[in-house]
Amino acid sequence: MTLGIDLGGTNLCIGLVDNGVVRKMISVPSFDRTFTLEQTMEYLSEQILAVLTPEVTKIGIGVPTVVDVEKGIVYDAANIPSWKEVHLKAYLEERFGLPVSVNNDANCYAMGAYGMYPEDARPKTLIAVTLGTGMGIGIVDHGRLFCGVNCGAGELGYLPYKDGCLEEYCSKQFFAKHDIEAYDAAKAAEAGDAKAIEIFNEFGRHLGYALKILMYAYDPSHIVFGGGIANALPLFRDALVASLKENFPFEANVDRLCIDVQTSGETPIIGASLI
User: Fold this and answer.
1) Which residues contact 20 (CB under 8 A, 6 or more apart)?
2) pLDDT at 42 (0 to 100)
3) Which alpha helices (DSSP H) does the chain contain, by range?
4) What is the pLDDT of residue 81?
């Protein structure tokens, strides 16, 4: 039995995972932004204790930033102001007496998405793209995470793009530019609102450009979308594929590409248990 933890800016989710199946899961608000480092660690420990059982043999945790995976040190965590350099692995191992693995949250989501496929249909190379407050990317190649030296592989969202960076056009930030929430835009588009439909078409074109870079860099067999916006894939899929194919010399690669959606809250928990 493994304890999988997904530490987000909004919610902290913890689950008991047994052979790839979540047996119990809780979701509580994440840290208050005013918390000191000591307060965040105490809060995290309290939530772990609420779920921990004697059967647990390992803890895996995904955090929204780069990580020294070997030492389990977290640097400059997004939305957690007090987390500049946190020796999370050492702290949790001392506190609970269990081995602890720490990784980036998008990487954990990618491993979870990979694990959701049947064993005889696992992707050769899977890229998970989370479409939320930002854009996170995780890469699984033949069953193994590709993290890079500093756990920063796949941080495509920070690439310069137009008047900012790609993330601003491939996440909820894009909808904020149009003064609308992604959820509200989806409801309006589904009801036939022409402006909302065009917003999603534009979003698809930007995301298609981002995926084109991923195709050149990693040539994946599968791309899996997570996060709230992923549920609206039918609204921007055609624009995304058209943008992806535009001036892309290997059209057959795009035709063979499998594009899926996995928005279950269990996905990052399962992934954290696998790292």
Assistant:
1) 115, 270, 273
2) 97
3) 37-51, 88-96, 105-115, 172-177, 182-190, 194-218, 233-245, 251-256, 266-274
4) 93
Per-residue model confidence as pLDDT tens digits over 98-127 = 999 999 999 999 999 999 899 899 999 999
Query: Rounded to 5, what percent of the chain is helix, strand, coil?
Result: 45, 25, 30
Q: Which 3 state secondary structure label does DSSP give 59?
A: strand
Token digits of residue 253: 């690669």
Encode pLDDT of 145-192 as tens digits.
999 888 889 989 999 999 999 999 999 999 999 999 999 999 999 999
Q: CB under 8 Å to 268, separation ≥6 — which residues?
A: 4, 6, 13, 62, 105, 108, 109, 112, 226
Q: For residue 104, which of 142, 132, 145, 141 has the smallest C-alpha distance?
A: 145
Please name which of 182, 268, 175, 271 lies closest in space to residue 229, comparing C-alpha atoms. 182
Query: 117 by DSSP, 3-state: which?
Result: coil
List, in order, residues 6 or more apart from 104 with CB less than 8 Å away: 62, 63, 64, 65, 66, 67, 136, 138, 147, 151
- pTM beyond cutoff 0.70: yes
> Using CA atoms, how far apart are residues 215 and 206, in angstroms rounded to an integer?
15
3 state DSSP class of 66 = strand
